[in-house]
Design a protein that fits this description.
- The chain has 61 residues and is α+β, with helices and mostly antiparallel strands.
- It has one helix and three strands, in the order αβββ.
- The longest helix has 11 residues.
- The protein is elongated.
Length: 61
Amino acid sequence: MKYLSKEEVLANLQKENPYKVEALKVIHITTRKGDGSTENPVRFVEHYYSSEDGQLLFETE
């Protein structure tokens, strides 16, 4: 994994012109889902929870 320098990050942000950028703490949990069948293959599911109140923010497969 290549880390960008501060200058590279600022240059990228200026190109994309984001409305708002925040660094937030979240709880990230990776689980497996599925039974391995063709209809329901085993896959990883990512869950993201608020570290403040434990509420599920979103999940991705």
